Amino acid sequence: MTGRLSLALPGLMLAVAAPLHAAAPVRLITDISQNRIDIVYTFKGAELLVFGAIQYPRGAVPDERPGLAIVVRGPAEPITLRKKARVAGIWINTDSVRFETAPGFYAVATSAPIKTLVDERNASIWEIGVDYLQLSPTTGDAGEIGTFTHGLVDLRRRSGLWSEQEGRIGITQNILYQARIAIPSAVPVGAYTAEIYLIRHGRVIARAATPITIDKSGFERWVYVAAQDHGLVYGVAAVALALLAGWLAGLIVRRT
Amino acid sequence: MTLYLPIAELSVNWLIIVGLGGLVGFLSGMFGVGGGFLTTPLLIFYGIPPAVAVASSATQITGASVSGALAYWRRGGVDLKMGGVLVAGGFIGAGIGSVVFRWLQQLGQIDVTINLVYVVLLGTVGGLMLREAVGALRRTARGARPARLHQHNPVIAALPWKMRFYRSGLYISPLAPLLLGAVVGMLTVIMGVGGGFILVPAMIYLLGMSANSVVGTSLFQIVFVTAATTILHSVEAQTVDIVLAGLLLVGGVIGAQLGVRAAQKVSPVRLRLGLALLVLGVAVRLAIGLTLTPDELFTVFGPA
Question: What are the tens digits of pLDDT across the range B189-229?
Fold first, then answer.
């Protein structure tokens, strides 16, 4: 649209068109089905619906289908990945690589295959696609890091904590978009974000982000906080509960 | 049917956990062992993080052992003096064990160590029990008298500061039960077992205690040491999952009663043979698991 417009205009107008374009860029309007996911005793995973609209300058909707990527990510944490090897016939953990910023959860949904949607540079900058995550490995040589990164990606993909859903964004009339992101039950708690990227010719031209909180709630939270903050009291309570249960069982048996 | 465990941080099918507790409870009621050596590996196999499985299993054993300990107490089957020495040893062992546990965790070798120690211990104890049970079966088949259980171990008899343990019918140094208690305490912290499967044979064959106070005294030690272990894990690593332990207890309490009833229909020698085969079976299964190429070559340590 902008391209066609600039071509039609004389050279003088080009200088004016550039700031105009900057003043009225394409905007992404986004919302999410839940800004907070409460982990309660019945929690068995959740499904987030990320949806919104693309606001084109002057309402000029292009004919071509827009390129979109929706990324939901959890807090990045340092982890150590260990690899098992056979020593004297037994499989034990031997080599390890430390990753400083491995997200506990990462899911990306795109409107087209990642390879054709976005160029490598933009994919790396915005971390679009599991292969472009900045994991910051700090130990090990290049070959080792390659093997371990592959291992980590494989492990997290199969546990559902990292996922790619290529071509799974629904787009209506080139304006409205929506995608469903599955959150598994083993998800870590913390501050999450949902990021939406509008991509044209391999480059990110607009983006928007919304925070999401995933936290334990109610009884689960109470137990968790008690265990974390009052370890001794929690331990004594656990023992008391166990003793009570055992004693009651004994009592019932003696009666019958 | 799913229930989210607040400390293990995943959702489980609670029926499976209660069933697992019930199965272990049944076996423990039948054979008179705590069953921790089954609970911990089964929980890990189900996907519970090893540290949480070990800690919560210890909590469950406290509850599972207390009614038995009380029952023996009423019948005068607990040697308090001997139990006190074992518990003191157990506390020392638990303290050492928790240091070893953290160290192994930092090295990333905790799961391998847990499995290896299980294989060695269960293999040895199972093998010894099997030999004893087969021998006893043969003797009863020949119509001979059962062999005397009391034996005097020359090393233990040589230890200093001997004292009398009247209920146990012993005049030995408290160092031997103290050391035994410490070894079992270490195992409780590291592997989430009560340690009855080591304590009972060691009290009979090594210390030479009279049989009528062995099981009661062993249960007495287990209640106190597993309770201390639960508190230790809660304070140091926050790995005790009260919901998980509760589910296991519910199943265990019911299972144990069924087990006790089932045991009354089988002869004691056959029971011992069955237990020996079960213990050996678990050892063999774990040994195979250590040598087979694992499904997952990589393991994540640190925050999930």
Answer: 988 888 888 888 888 888 888 777 888 888 889 999 999 99
Question: What's residue B195's pLDDT?
Answer: 84
Q: Convert the pLDDT of each residue in A136-180 to its tens digit.
A: 998 777 888 889 999 999 999 998 999 999 999 999 999 999 999
Contact state of B59 with A236 under an 8 Å Cβ cutoff: no
Q: Is A248 helix (H, G, I), strand (E, B) or coil?
A: helix
C-beta neighbour count of B133 within 10 angstroms: 20
Residue of B3, B253, B302 lying closest to A249 (CB–CB)? B253
Query: Cβ(B103)–Cβ(B267) under 8 Å?
Result: no
Complex ipTM: 0.83
In this structure, how many other beta carbons lie within 10 angstroms of the beta carbon of residue B183? 19
Rounded to an integer, what distance in angstroms lies between the CA atom of residue A58 and that of residue A29? 15
Interface test with A, best of B66, B114, B229, B247 (most A CBs within 10 A): B66
Contact B109, B273 (CB under 8 A): no
DSSP, residue by residue, A136-190: -B-SS-HHHHHHHHHHHHHHHHHTTSEEEETT--EEETTTEEEEEEEE-TTPPPE
Chain A residues inside the 8 Å CB shell of B71:
250
What does the DSSP 8-state code read for residue A118?
A: B
Tell me which residue of A112, A153, A147, A159 sits closest to A131, measured CA to CA: A153
pLDDT at A15: 42
The pLDDT tens digits of the residues spanning A26-82 come to 899 999 998 899 988 888 889 999 999 999 988 888 888 999 999 999 999 899 898
Question: Could you tell me how many CB contacts below 8 A there are between chain A and chain B?
Answer: 182
* A93:B112 CB<8 A: yes
DSSP 3-state assignment of A133? coil
pTM of the entire structure? Answer: 0.79
Task: Return the beta strands (E) in A56-156 as ranges.
Answer: 67-73, 76-87, 90-103, 106-110
Residues of B in contact with A152 (CB under 8 A): 298, 300
Is pLDDT at A12 greater than 90 in this prediction?
no
Q: B257 is written with which tokens?
A: 């009663």
> Which is more confident, B171 or A168?
A168
| Amino acid at the residue B172 | I
Give the closest-approach CA distance of B119 to chain A in angstroms. Answer: 12
CA-nearest of B112, B55, B34 to B286 is: B112
Nearest residue of B to residue A42, measured between CA atoms: B3
Residue of A49, A165, A36, A189 lying closest to A108 (CA atoms): A165
Alpha-carbon span A172 to A105, nearest angstrom:
28
**A79 has which bridge partners?**
A99
Residue of B nearest to A238 (CA): B242
Give the minimum alpha-carbon distance from B153 to chain A in angstroms, rounded to a whole number. 35
Pairing, β A76-87 against β A46-55: unpaired
Spatial distance between the Cα atoms of B299 and B301, rounded to a whole number of angstroms = 6
Burial profile A118-130: b = 16 or more Cβ within 10 angstroms, e = fewer: beeebbeebbbbb
Q: Measured between CA atoms, how close is A85 to chain B, in angstroms?
A: 8
